[in-house]
Design brief:
Length: 202
């Protein structure tokens, strides 16, 4: 059990960018091609991440038996993040797949969203629009932190947060938006958020 209590923790990041834009190019050189995917190999990386999650679940069973209500953090394990950029565009591209394969991928992502938090396998999704077609309800409802940057249409707000969401009467500029997170801001009344500009990425 000593491996669970190492002080140094190195988190891992998996990135999918279907359009091969800045996110893909930056990820390829910072985290490596094995942890980066575009549209063509996105499903393989999703399955790889899911396999890592199942392996971690098995590894933590012994720890959870003697440590109730604990998470991967208490076990000293690193977080595994899977960032999917342009999720709407990616999911649209899957329409050419057989329904059985599409359903399998949706099931895997739902499993990660539902099971991953306690295990430290975090699903991070970015999309330009949010509706029932963009992201299945089973995935969307499991997302803990929800952020809408910039001005969005009413459907996006209602789909992402809740049907009765109250949007602050603010004209958002670049880097501004609203968020919800348990204990800080509810989905009915999300709070204002400002994200700093990262000039070092230029």
């Amino acid at each position: 059990m000593n491996k669970y209590f190492q002080k140094k923790v190195d988190h891992e990041l998996f990135i999918i960018d279907p359009k091969r834009t800045d996110v893909y190019q930056m990820a390829k050189f910072t985290i490596g091609i094995d942890h980066t995917a575009d549209k063509t190999n996105s499903i393989n990386l999703i399955k790889q991440f899911h396999d890592r999650m199942k392996k971690r679940q098995n590894e933590l069973q012994e720890y959870f038996k003697s440590n109730r209500n604990k998470t991967y953090k208490d076990a000293g394990l690193p977080a595994l993040f899977m960032l999917i950029d342009e999720f709407g565009a990616l999911r649209e591209s899957w329409k050419t797949l057989a329904k059985k394969e599409r359903d399998e991928v949706d099931s895997i992502l739902s499993d990660v969203a539902f099971m991953g938090r306690q295990l430290g396998c975090i699903l991070w999704v970015a999309t330009q629009q949010m509706n029932a077609q963009t992201m299945p309800t089973a995935i969307r409802e499991q997302l803990v932190l929800k952020i809408a940057l910039g001005d969005s249409d009413e459907q996006t707000y209602r789909t992402l947060f809740s049907s009765g969401v109250e949007i602050p009467p603010v004209l958002f500029t670049a880097g501004q938006g609203i968020y919800s997170y348990p204990g800080l801001a509810g989905t009915e009344k999300p709070r204002l958020l400002t994200v700093p500009y990262c000039s070092f990425l230029n």
